[in-house]
Amino acid sequence: MNDIKLSKDSDRLICILYKEYMQKRKSGTDKFMASILGSAIKIKENLMPDESVEDISQTCWALHDEGLLNVCPGDNIAYEVAITEDGVIYMENRFPKGLKQLLEYMKSLSYFIAEKAVKGAVEAAVRSVIS
Predict the structure, then answer these.
(1) Over 60: is that where the pLDDT of 118 sits?
(2) Residue 105 lies inside a defined structural domain of this protein
(3) Residue 16: closest CA among 3, 1, 40
């Protein structure tokens, strides 16, 4: 797992999906259900409105190739997406201080700053974790 190399798009997506997983776990959802993240359409609607379904699907498949996501195809998209145990381990090792450290990293990324709505949401999430 140490030799994983991600594009900026893949890095952005795995961070967003891991954040979603962690928030589900924090709210009491069991590991299995928290790992299920939906389709590329749902990811676009709920987490990445600035990206196309096609780009999200392609990036999901790239993360699948690295072993970080399980992806099932359907209707020419990533139809079912779930973070794998290896994906969780990879992200835990990247961000050993947890959700707060992840959110700080996401806040620092230039593509989050470009979108005011996303920037505001990340800042609000950081405040809620710190409180």
Answers:
(1) no
(2) no
(3) 40
